[in-house]
Amino acid sequence: QVQLEESGGGLVQAGGSLRLSCVASGRTYSIYALGWFRQAPGKEREFVATINWGSRRTSYADSVKGRFTISRNNAGNTVYLQMNSLKPEDTAVYYCARRNSGRFSILYTGPDDYEDWGQGIQVTVSS
After folding, report:
1. By C-alpha distance, which of 72, 32, 31, 65 is closest to 48?
2. Over the stretch 35-93, which tens digit does the pLDDT of each residue have?
3. Staple partner for 12: which of 3, 16, 105, 109, CB 3.0–4.6 Å?
């Protein structure tokens, strides 16, 4: 059974940092990519960052480029999202998502491109 478990969220002041983690379990050999998405109240779920599991190529939303960094561990089951210089507009529930197939190290950025999702974790940035 595929599971994704997020941790590391919380409340932080603007300009601060948080590090989110997501541990994947179940058929981890078939991971093609892990990504982070977020959803603020009243808004649609939006792409934040993704990492191709084999090539470690990454992609970021324009709104987080230069502030957020996605990475993975060598054991191949955990993805991280280092969030620096946080802004109040980064406040949202953050979701880890998993894609199990793909081609040519293409980086997928749409929510519908991912098959499995974590429960989500709250990140709140106060002004």
Report:
1. 65
2. 999 999 999 999 999 999 989 999 999 999 999 999 999 888 999 999 999 999 999 99
3. 16
- Give every CB contact of residue 65 below 8 A, 6+ residues apart in sequence: none
Cβ atoms of residues 47 and 113 within 8 Å: no
Q: What is the per-residue pLDDT across 8-50, written as a single tens digit (0 to 9) for each?
A: 999 999 999 999 999 999 888 888 999 999 999 999 999 999 9
Q: Give the neighbor-by-neighbor strand order of the sheet with 3-7.
A: 3-7, 18-25, 78-83, 68-72
Query: From CA 68, how far away is CA 54, in angstroms rounded?
Result: 20
Q: What is the largest CA-CA distance in the chain?
A: 42
Two structure tokens written together for 97:
């998502």
Are 120 and 104 in contact by the 8 Å Cβ rule? The answer is no
Which residues is 10 bridged to in the sheet? 123
What is the token pair recorded at 105? 């190290």
